[in-house]
Amino acid sequence: MSANDADRATVTGSTERETATAVSEAEGPIVDLSGVTFGYTATPVVEDVSLAVESGEYVAVVGPNGSGKSTLMRLMLGLLGPDTGTARLFGEDAAGFNDGERVGYVAQRATAAEDMPITVREVVKMGRFPYLGVDRLTDGALADEFAADPVNTARRTANVVTGRLTADDWEIVDDALATVGMSAFADRRIGRLSGGQRQRVFIARALAGEADLLVLDEPTVGVDAESVDAFYDLLGALNEAGITVVLIEHDLGAVAEHADRVVCLNREVYFDGPTDEFVESDALARAFGTEARFLTRGGE
């Protein structure tokens, strides 16, 4: 990502982000798991996990295959409810959380999107959908706007009710595309992009939704090495701009280089702390066993 793109990432949505950060600080941790246990059968996949993610953190969750990483992510987002313990998101019960625009999710491989006959810009505009509809008209200033400019206010109101994006919405969409360096691809079909480009588009969709929390599930699987480096540069710039990042990643070398904090999981938490301390600890060997030496870039 270029320096200009990084600057834009810092500027885009900064006022809204500062407000959201102040609110989240009042609420407490963005993610708050306490004594969480969950199993699809009688055997727990995640057992007695407690962790909190504060606003502005960059947290990587690592662990061997089958360690419960993706299940932990679903518990964080309220997609699963714990068998025991509590899971809270932005201060609310995660399973009942309905302010979805505050969370951006990037899956490991969005293969379904490859066959969709839609453009990059159309994908990113989906991030604005939570802001459309009648709920958008609850602004107390609406009556004053009608009095001051009845024609344009009526037109804007009609657009909102019918689900049409306003000029402000499209500006946010275009800013999001610029932030991730995909403006030149706005009219290209999503299926004609490389894996790394598609992941950038899905991050742009989250930015268009003005998300405060970005959750990524092994987003660089199948992405070439050069694109991976650029992808992590982008994540770093977004985190510096105030977005909280929770990353599930298999590449421990990338985690060691980019994340500020590591949660090492294998059903239970083996380590939770600063990345440099994780690198020096024995948590990797205890959680991964004999696999550990094959997982870092230095062991390839």
From TrEMBL:
<dbReference type="GO" id="GO:0005524">
    <property type="term" value="F:ATP binding"/>
</dbReference>
<feature type="domain" description="ABC transporter">
    <location>
        <begin position="31"/>
        <end position="292"/>
    </location>
</feature>
<feature type="region of interest" description="Disordered">
    <location>
        <begin position="1"/>
        <end position="26"/>
    </location>
</feature>
<protein>
    <submittedName>
        <fullName>Phosphonate-transporting ATPase</fullName>
    </submittedName>
</protein>
<keyword id="KW-0067">ATP-binding</keyword>
<keyword id="KW-0813">Transport</keyword>
<dbReference type="InterPro" id="IPR003593">
    <property type="entry name" value="AAA+_ATPase"/>
</dbReference>
<keyword id="KW-0547">Nucleotide-binding</keyword>
<dbReference type="GO" id="GO:0016887">
    <property type="term" value="F:ATP hydrolysis activity"/>
</dbReference>
<comment type="similarity">
    <text>Belongs to the ABC transporter superfamily.</text>
</comment>
<dbReference type="InterPro" id="IPR017871">
    <property type="entry name" value="ABC_transporter-like_CS"/>
</dbReference>
<dbReference type="InterPro" id="IPR003439">
    <property type="entry name" value="ABC_transporter-like_ATP-bd"/>
</dbReference>
<dbReference type="InterPro" id="IPR050153">
    <property type="entry name" value="Metal_Ion_Import_ABC"/>
</dbReference>
<dbReference type="Pfam" id="PF00005">
    <property type="entry name" value="ABC_tran"/>
</dbReference>
<dbReference type="InterPro" id="IPR027417">
    <property type="entry name" value="P-loop_NTPase"/>
</dbReference>
